Amino acid sequence: METRHFDYVVIGGGSAGYAAARTAREKFENVAIIEDGAKLGGLCILRGCMPSKTLIYSAEVLHLAKEGAKFGLEIPEAKVDMKALHERKLTTIEDFASYRREQLESERFTLIRDRAVFVDEKTVILASCGDLVTADFFMIATGSVVNTPGVPGLREVEHWTSDDVLDLDFLPKSVIVLGGGIVACELAQFLNRVGTKVTQIQRSERILKEASEEASAVVMQAFRDEGIDLRTGTDLKSVVKKGDEYVVCFSEGGEIQEVRAAHLFNAMGRKPNSQALALEQAGVMTKSSGHIDVNGMQQTANPRIYAAGDVAGPHEIVHIAIMQGEVAAGHAIGKKVEPVNYDLKTGVVFTDPQIAAAGISIEEAAERGIDVVSADYPFDDHGKSILMEAKYGYVKTWADRSTGKLIGAECVGKDAGELMHAMAVAITLGATPSDLLKVHWYHPTLSEIWSYPLEDLADELD
Question: Which domains does the chain carry?
Answer without folding.
Answer: 3-146+271-341 (3.50.50.60), 162-268 (3.50.50.60), 343-461 (3.30.390.30)
